[in-house]
Specification:
The chain is mostly helical and 139 residues long. Helix content is 52%, strand content 12%. It contains six helices and two strands; from the N terminus they run H-H-E-E-H-H-H-H. The chain has a two-stranded antiparallel sheet. A hairpin with a 2-residue loop joins strand 1 and strand 2 (66-73). Helix 3 (76-89) runs parallel beside helix 6 (116-138). The relative contact order is 0.19.
């Protein structure tokens, strides 16, 4: 299994293949379309990430050795963003998730190409995923 760092390196390489941001946005939208569907039972208010402009549902389960995430969003670009984060964090140990430095977000230029509300939403998604990992670590 790849480490969080290795997955980030793969994502950076993928984004470098595109010449402009329109292509990168299209790629993000495609990633969102390939996101495995969250079980309807988890699309509840308790799983909505606070601080996102659009609705984003995030569910985590597992234990400290392996955390599994499923997610969905009602906005196509946001769904791509959460798909990226799920790809990085899914099936990783809780301790590695909670302590991860997500440098790929800056390296692919994501933060500077998102609206301030989307950038805040992205940070909220990361925070929530790390929070779930910390909770599973404490069990």
């Amino acid at each position: 299994m790849q480490s969080i760092k290795e997955i980030q390196e793969d994502i950076i390489a993928e984004f470098q293949m595109f010449d402009d941001w329109m292509q990168r946005y299209e790629y993000l939208i495609d990633l969102g379309k390939s996101l495995p569907l969250i079980d309807e039972q988890f699309k509840v208010d308790d799983n909505i990430i606070k601080g996102c402009q659009s609705r984003v549902w995030l569910h985590a389960e597992g234990d400290k050795t392996e955390v599994h995430f499923t997610a969905d969003s009602d906005a196509i670009l946001t769904k791509g963003l959460i798909a990226l984060l799920v790809r990085v964090f899914d099936s990783q140990p809780a301790e590695e998730i909670s302590g991860a430095d997500l440098y790929f977000l800056d390296q692919i230029g994501l933060k500077e190409h998102l609206s301030p509300t989307r950038a805040n939403g992205l940070l909220s998604m990361v925070k929530q995923m790390k929070f779930y990992a910390l909770a599973l670590q404490a069990r």
